Amino acid sequence: MEKKRALITGVNGQDGSYLAELLLARGYEVFGLVRRVGLEAPEHRLGRLLPLLDRIQLQPASLESYAGIFNAVAKIRPDECYHLAAASFVSYEFDDEFSTLTTNINGTHYLLASLKDLVPSCRFYFAGTSEMFGSAEEMPQNEHTRFRPRSIYGISKVAGFELVRNYRERYGMHASSGILFNHESPRRGHEFVTRKITSGVARILAGQANELRLGNLDAERDWGFAQEYVDAMWRMLRQPEPDDYVIATGRLHSVRDFVRIAFASAGLDWEKYVVTDPNFFRSGESVALCGDASKARRILGWEPRKGFEEMVREMVAADCESMGVELPAAAG
Ligand code: F7E
């Protein structure tokens, strides 16, 4: 039997690399869309994919070019497409608003339009986000909670989500959206708070830093483990009907909780190192985002497994290992 062909945009990101591994293990032929610059400096830009490079096929294309996306889809003719690529850093200052909106909305639109014309039977996954809820009126948030995005990133994702819904309803495409809450791992980008903390702990242990500057320690998030979240994406495309699903743990933790566990796992007292810095505060961030994933549990048979503390410890251990520093044996 011929192998199924999966196309992943954002294949070099945290989720893309985990998803590529999962699909290879399940017998897929995996194609990844990357920017041309990625191919020019693979060790730098494709770091998370290095162990997989001989097993996946990379196709250079920019999300900003309809012709590029159309040609890539025409060449690959995927059975399944996972659209993960996006400008994904959240800022409430509306900086870089034009490029975030253009890339995220047009990229989604170009992909959907190309698939509709070339391979309408392709199953499509869109990476939605809890940022679409923004200053939500209720907690926890589920698939019926009204979107009230308050970041440009959140606004761009609501537009993408609505495009997906319209392509599904108007053209009958099997197009689903995951509304994923924060999900972390040792592969998380360093700009996000979890990885900033765990790599900061490793640098302090290595003697390369003596403080860690953070924003609001009281900010709360629903943090899950990324590898489990990509499995939910795959499960959505197994359903007979396309739909939208919240993927979350349903548990809230503060940045302070994360900090405390991360430093303790390295035998350090966080209060000696963490400095709050107003530069990292986000204005207007008041509502805690916490997801209700009971629909995913019921229909997809998906549930989060790894606990928060275990994940934090693993992230610290991975950062220490990559820097060649030993964790104190009895720490924690
Ligand atoms: O912030 C607070 C910050 O940047 C988490 C992306 O994957 O998840 C991610 O977006 C919390 C916020 O992630 C610092 O104010 C405190 O409350 O790690 P983050 P995010 O903005 O939640 C959603 C679901 C996405 O879809 C996004 O693409 O931590 N915080 N101090 C800080 N955050 C950062 N980055 N740096 C700090 O120093």
Indicate the topology.
Blueprint: E1 5-9, H1 14-25, E2 29-34, H2 36-40, H3 42-45, E3 57-60, H4 66-76, E4 80-83, H5 97-118, E5 123-129, H6 152-171, E6 175-180, E7 183-184, H7 193-205, E8 212-214, E9 220-221, E10 224-225, H8 226-236, E11 244-247, E12 253-254, H9 255-264, E13 274-276, H10 294-300, H11 308-323
Parallel strand pairs: 1-2, 1-4, 2-3, 4-5, 5-6, 6-11, 7-10, 8-13
Antiparallel strand pairs: 9-12
Helix pairs in contact: 1-8, 4-5, 5-6, 7-9, 7-11
The structure holds ligand F7E.
Tell me what the structure shows:
The protein is 39% helix and 15% strand. With 332 residues, it is an alpha/beta fold. It has two domains: 5-183 and 223-247, NAD(P)-binding Rossmann-like Domain (Rossmann fold, 3-Layer(aba) Sandwich); 189-222 and 251-290 and 306-323, UDP-galactose 4-epimerase, domain 1 (Alpha-Beta Complex), CATH 3.90.25.10. Helix 5 links the parallel strand 4 (80-83) and strand 5 (123-129). Helix 7 (193-205) runs parallel beside helix 9 (255-264). The longest helix is centred in the N-terminal third of the chain and has 22 residues, at 97-118.
Largest sheet: 7 strands, parallel
Count the E strands: 13
Strand order of the largest sheet: 3-2-1-4-5-6-11
CATH class of the largest domain: Alpha Beta
Say what the CATH topology of the largest domain is. Answer: Rossmann fold
Supply the CATH superfamily name of the largest domain. Answer: NAD(P)-binding Rossmann-like Domain
What do the pLDDT scores average to? 94
Number of domains: 2
Stretches with pLDDT under 50, minimum 5 residues = none
Bound molecules: ligand F7E
Q: Can you tell me the overall shape?
A: globular
The fraction of residues in strands falls at 15-25%
Q: What is the number of helical segments per DSSP (H or I, 4+ residues)?
A: 11
Q: Work out the radius of gyration.
A: 20 Å
Structural class: alpha/beta
| H and E string | EHEHHEHEHEHEEHEEEHEEHEHH
| Named CATH architecture of the largest domain | 3-Layer(aba) Sandwich
